[in-house]
Amino acid sequence: MSPTLAIALTASFTAVSCALLGTFLVLRKMTMVGDAISHAVLPGIAVAYWLSQSRASLWMFLGAAAVGVFATVVIEVLRKKLKVQSDASIGMTFTTLFALGVILITFWSDSVDLDQQCVLYGEIAYVPFNTWSTGALNMGPIALWSSGLLLIAVLLYIFIGYKGLKMSSFNEDYAAVLGIGVVAWNLSLMAMVSLATVVSFESVGAILVVALLVVPAATAYLMVDKLSHLLIGAGIIALLASIGGYGCSRLLDTSIAGTITTLLGVQFLIVLAYHQLIQKQQQHAVA
After folding, report:
1. CA 72, 225, 17: angle at the middle one, nearest 5?
2. FRET pair for 106, CA 20 to 30 Å: which of 95, 137, 142, 264?
3. Which residues sit opposite 134 in a β-bridge?
């Protein structure tokens, strides 16, 4: 497989996975939770690496998922039990955990070959060089396999839990009356966001993950009013941004992650301008 194709596929798989999960975060008005988790999992990654001395995805995921779910529980306790404002509870939780992660990495710097710059920015251009083999057979880039498996896991999760996710996203009280485990669905969603975040760390970095969790779903939200269409629209927008961003970065010789994120912002501004224009036309028609 050519390096160009490997990078394009990795970016596309990651983008669509994050966009689909981000749809439910946008509906729940929890987009900042995605940002919080992407930063809060840093201590989990540091501890997992220190204990296992391995950068294997399984250990990274276990550490990140554990801290991601813990961060979600802390935010929910602060928000619902202790009546702390939602934005304040999110801000306090993720800044505290992120700072703890930075301290742990600094404290273990002699024995842990991991730094916060790798986690924050990633480098998708290096994807083709980190491969794995089975015997004499080269299986290709690790990031490509992990991002592909992530997409499959996200699709299965949404397919199996579509009803529970839908009901708990639109009306938690009504979902609880129907016997749907709202708390369980919230925690499972946060666990999946943690999974998407840690799988995407090394290739695209936390900053692009946050953009992919928020912007495609927010853009599609301006155009459609049905959940199934919202999921499809967010996936298409993320796919176009990842492929277009990679193409533009090669043409302009710029950062791949930065170009993809910029293109996501451009897409949002175009759709927002069109949305505002349609609204004004409708208002004039009514008047």
Report:
1. 45
2. 142
3. 137
Assign a CATH topology to domain 3-119+140-286: ABC transporter involved in vitamin B12 uptake, BtuC (1.10.3470)
Which amino acid, one-letter code, is at 186? N
pLDDT tier for residue 59 given thresholds of 50, 70 and 90:
confident
Taking alpha carbons only, the member of 21, 23, 7 closest to residue 245 is: 7
**Rounded CA Rg of the chain:** 19
Of 171, 184, 197, 175, whose CA–CA distance to 22 is shortest? Answer: 197
Lowest pLDDT segment from 4-18, 137-151, 236-250: 137-151
Q: What is the pLDDT of residues 198-245, one digit of tens each?
A: 777 767 777 788 889 999 999 999 999 889 999 999 999 999 999 999
Where are the alpha helices (H) located in the chain, listed in sequence order? 3-27, 31-40, 42-52, 57-76, 86-107, 116-121, 142-170, 172-177, 182-221, 227-252, 256-286
Whether 125 contacts 7, CB under 8 Å: yes
CA 96 to chain centre: 20
Question: Could you tell me if 94 and 40 are in contact, meaning their C-beta atoms sit under 8 angstroms apart?
Answer: yes
Burial class (CB in 10 A: 0-12, 13-18, 19+), 35: buried
Write down the pTM of the prediction.
Answer: 0.85
pLDDT of residue 221: 93
Q: What are the DSSP calls for 104-133, one per residue?
A: HHHHTTTT----HHHHHH--GGGGGGSEEE
* Mean pLDDT, range 9-35, rounded to an integer: 87
